[in-house]
Design a protein that fits this description.
Two copies of one chain form a homodimer.
Chain A: H1 6-24, H2 31-38, H3 42-48, H4 52-72, H5 82-95, H6 101-104, H7 107-115, H8 120-148, H9 156-177, H10 181-197
């Protein structure tokens, strides 16, 4: 095959890693699988990365940058009210459930599940990526709490983690059941909960 | 080493599989790892199981039987009111968060995350085990709904899956953060949600 320019092949390898790892898991993914999916040579892989673990660390950082950019430019981010932004986030997570599980599930949740006890650096990279995403959510929860539930006993951060727990757990059911229905229904429960703790009126259905 | 009797060695291998897979993931776990953890020979392993995949199928069934027996005999199961049983389940899940992540996380959630696209039989076994557990929960949700929220727009089954999504997702954070704090806080949000949708009075904290 003709080699693409170095920068482009690095990005191809990172994108391939996101897709292959989300489909097959981290351990079962080989350097050959990633090169094949990226359409680049093994020589090019080892020009960019020292090892599969080195690629995983770069892929976790790449995923973090990519998803933060993606959510930052989503339409709901333009809403002025922090509670509307928070509910907009939940609705948006429902809207992007397209394709198969590897298309909409989380690289970091998959990666950390397999590596937490054996690869401390990958665990830390996953924790950092997920915590950064949650810190953005927590800012909106905190602002909404000040406006709509200042006396509530829960912390804004715990709500941020709860939102992500629902998503990460529902993704496991999307994999077990080969479809996003549990994710959709769990997001509906999550949205109802957020409405209730911020004392928003509930519709009958 | 001295070989234990055949039935005993099968059970040792299954118990070892639960622990090793929950710590290292499925792909990274070798037959040697499991034999070593079980203290039985490789000959004994292949007397009982055709392969690691064959063991995984038996381990999923063994996990299902073991956990159903465990929850069936838990104190909260004696409560007469179905909503009390449901809230008792959530509290009990908090009480059993002892030890490290491999001690309290779910074999099936771990196993399916890695194998769903590549091992259809293991995926189906995980789905069956998780769905059976959720069916027990759904019976209590359904009975509680009839008593306390007969007009509610949500299905009892969707609440069962939501409860499990929260747990499975929070286990991912227990692994990422090396401790059960997110699980505890997410169970507190889940318990508050169940109280709200069944119209139970909420305390101030």
């Amino acid at each position: 095959m003709t080699s693409p320019p170095p920068h482009e092949s690095r990005k191809k390898l990172l994108n391939a890693a996101l897709n292959v790892i989300r489909a097959r898991g981290y351990c079962a993914t080989t350097v050959d699988d990633i090169c094949h999916a990226a359409g680049v040579t093994k020589g090019s892989f080892f020009h960019h990365f020292k090892s599969k673990d080195d690629l995983a660390l770069s892929a976790a950082a790449f995923w973090g940058d990519m998803t933060e950019g993606f959510f930052a430019s989503a339409p709901y981010r333009q809403l002025e009210d922090p509670l509307e932004r928070l509910l907009g986030y939940v609705d948006f997570r429902g809207e992007i459930l397209r394709g198969d599980a590897p298309d909409y599930t989380c690289l970091l949740g998959t990666l950390v599940q397999e590596t937490y006890a054996t690869h401390p650096d990958i665990r830390a990279a996953c924790d950092k990526g997920m915590s950064t995403h949650i810190a953005h959510l927590t800012r909106d929860v905190d602002a909404a709490k000040k406006l709509y539930a200042p006396e509530a006993p829960w912390s804004a951060e715990s709500v941020g983690y709860f939102i992500q727990s629902v998503l990460q757990g529902a993704f496991i059911f999307a994999k077990a059941k080969q479809g996003p229905e549990v994710v959709r229904e769990s997001l509906a429960h999550l949205r109802r909960y957020l409405g209730l703790i911020f004392h928003q009126p509930q519709s009958a259905n």
